[in-house]
Amino acid sequence: MAETLTETPPRQKLDGARQRLSDRDGFLAWIFLVPTVVYIVVLVAIPFFLAIAFAFSDVTSGNPSYDWVGLENFYRVFDDAVFWQALRNTFVFTVISMLLIVVLGKVLAMVLVADFKGKWIVRFLVLLPWTTPVALSSVTWLWLLHSIYSPIDWVLRNVGLIEENSYFLGRPALAMGSIIAVHVWRLVPLAAVIMMVGILSIPDDITEASRIDGAGFWRRMFEVTIPLTFPLIAVAALFGAIFTFTDMAVVYVLTGGGPTNSTHVLASWSFVRGIGGGDIGQGAVIALFLFPLLLAAAILILRAVRKMETI
Amino acid sequence: MAAPVATDAPSAAETARLRRRYAMRGVLSRVSLYLVAILAALLCAGPFVWSTLTATKLNADLYNPQHNPFLYNKPPTADHVMFLFTDTAFATFAWNTLWVGLLVVLITLVLGVPAAYSIARLNRPWSTPMGIGIFFVYLVPPSLLFLSLSRVVVWSGLQDSTWSLVLIYPTITVPVSTWLLIGFLKALPRDIEEQAMVDGYSRLGAVLRTVLPLLFPGVVAVVVFAFTLTASEFIYALTFISPTSEKVVSTGVPTELIRGDVFFWQSLQAANILIAVPIAFVFNLFLARFISGFTMGAVKG
User: Fold this and answer.
1) Statement to judge: residues A190 and A134 lie in one domain
2) A101 in a domain, yes or no?
3) Which residues contact B32 (CB under 8 A, 6 or more apart)?
4) Quick one: closest CA in B to A284, which residue?
5) How far lies B219's CA from each of A83, A259, A263, B213, B215, in Å?
6) What are B189-197's contacts with CB under 8 Å, separation 24+?
7) Based on the domain organization, do A37 and A140 belong to the same domain?
8) Is residue A26 in some structural domain?
9) Do A9 and A151 share a domain, yes or no?
10) Which one of B205, B226, B231, B240 is CB 3.0 to 4.6 Å from B201, fit for a cystine?
11) pLDDT at B296
12) Is pLDDT of B300 > 70?
């Protein structure tokens, strides 16, 4: 906050008794932080390096003793066409969902910040997809996309657009589309909330001034709102991407990777290999491919946040 | 769409025309706002509304492709909702989710509040890098760690026990909560505890007596957020636990209510609604606060 930014270290005007206190600050800083750091090192940092180590080992759930096997797991993973399919799917799902999440999230954010009657109930309804455990909402979608009883098919049939059911989850292209749709449906509210933050942080007088100067809705949107909130749009986009990129619940519940392994993503394929098949070495290799992309996303988010500080 | 700007003093007729035009534009924008709002609400909540309907349908109603899926074609029934409680372990799953969530939230606060205070307030040279580090930890996803953590869980002897989730879930909630709390703390003026310290409290005493009460709204937001994350988690729960009695909602419902090819459809939908509505309701109560925390963390971080 503004009033605290003038850093006059109290230390200078302190007598001996207070000096001890400032010494204690350093001690407190450590005591406060150590439990969290220890916890994160033990259960995030070490397992992370363990995951890398497993990728070069023959560890299985039946035989967990560690033996170095070099790149053998990598060769076996690369030899499998499903891996390449999963890698491709992960990218396709992420890129398409991210674009849709940003556009729809932007629209939704505009609605959520507007003032209208029944705002509370609209917010409640709009947030449902994001706050609901993803495995449960995916089950609901499983029925919405059912091969025989799908209500979506029922509508399309009765409107006369289709004769036969679409078999949403039975055809590779439609199954991929369905998975993307569920990701978008689930993450748009989150993106909207993040972008709301941006819109709310624009000072009123800027909007007011552009309105008085005669800028219409679209002009204000593209020349005022979007440039000013760009960092938060970027954050929303990257969060959307990361959540799509690393999620396996949607794929697991909706298609289980099928039909014929055509909709696997890296996370679900790693699960099938590592836990389903018990081959932890191979699973670890597959999961490892998530990392470079996550790192890139993290750096981009951080840059966006930095940019925000300079505004 | 820029409106013609009246440069010179416009005639009365011109003014009236412009006024009508702006009024018209106002009405149109209101109408389109409501339309978009209703459409958004329908798209987002539609599956849930429809889920409620399905949960209370008779088999004979549901399993007929000719029946209108958006109406009751036969009288509604509560049997399938009751089935959830009498014939499945749903109540156990819900209870497990609840107590795991509460314990995880507690651990998160015990670790996160002091850590956030240390980073936000105690001005060590490592404060900023540590804050960034914690943010990065948040981005390490469960799908990267679940295999090695499954070994860790085996070594710790907690496999197939709900306690494994209590041990592991804070890896998800602590980083994000700390990040949010740093934001909330930066929004509180520093003078508060400095004043208390001038009045003779130690740093710790000042924190306990002045900062914590003021931080309380932020803490509540973090509690809700962390609980939501825990309840949604899927991959760890699926990996670590297989006995029915130890499962949580997010894995128990999809694995136990689908037995091979038999789907207990109405009960599945009922489970979805029973879990979704309370969480969304509570979350919504704290949305505004959550947003302000996000702004502070992001903008002032």
Assistant:
1) yes
2) yes
3) none
4) B147
5) 43, 45, 40, 10, 6
6) B189/A1, B189/A3, B189/A4, B190/A1, B190/A4, B190/B121, B191/A3, B191/A4, B193/B121, B194/A10, B197/A21
7) no
8) yes
9) no
10) B205
11) 56
12) no
Contact B280, A151 (CB under 8 A): no
Average pLDDT, chain B: 83
Number of domains in chain A: 2
Q: Is residue A171 part of a domain?
A: yes
Distance (Å, rounded) from C-alpha B79 to C-alpha B46? 23
CATH at residue A130: 1.10.3720.10
With a threshold of 0.85, tell me whether the complex ipTM lies above it.
no
CA–CA dist A162, A154 (Å, integer): 9
Segment (H or E) for B263: strand B262-263
Backbone φ, ψ for residue B263 (5° rounding): -105, 125
Question: B272 vs A137: CB contact, 8 Å cut-off?
Answer: yes
User: Average pLDDT of A247-274?
Assistant: 88
Per-residue model confidence as pLDDT tens digits over B132-186: 888 788 878 888 888 889 889 998 888 889 999 999 999 999 998 898 888 888 8
State whether A197 and A284 are in the same domain. yes
**Closest partner residue to A21 among B70, B143, B197, by Cβ?**
B197
* Among B143, B180, B265, the residue to mutate for chain A (most A Cβ within 10 A): B143
> Does A300 reach chain B within 8 Å, measured CB to CB?
no
Residues in chain A closer than 8 A to B30 (CB atoms): 116
A66 lies in a domain? no
* A151 and A257 share one domain: yes
pLDDT above 60 (res B8): no
pLDDT of A15 > 70? The answer is: no
| Residues from chain B contacting residue A215 (CB–CB below 8 Å) | 2
On whether both A133 and A248 belong to a single domain, the answer is yes
**Rounded mean pLDDT, A204-220:** 80
pLDDT confidence of residue B30: 83
A34 is in which domain, residue-wise?
1-55
CA gap B134, B248 in Å, rounded:
27
Is B209 touching A (CB cutoff 8 A)? no
Q: What is the pLDDT of residue B93?
A: 92
The hierarchical CATH code for the domain B80-299 is 1.10.3720.10
CA distance B239 to chain A (A): 7
Best A22, A54, A143 member to test B by mutation, with max B CBs in 10 Å, is: A143
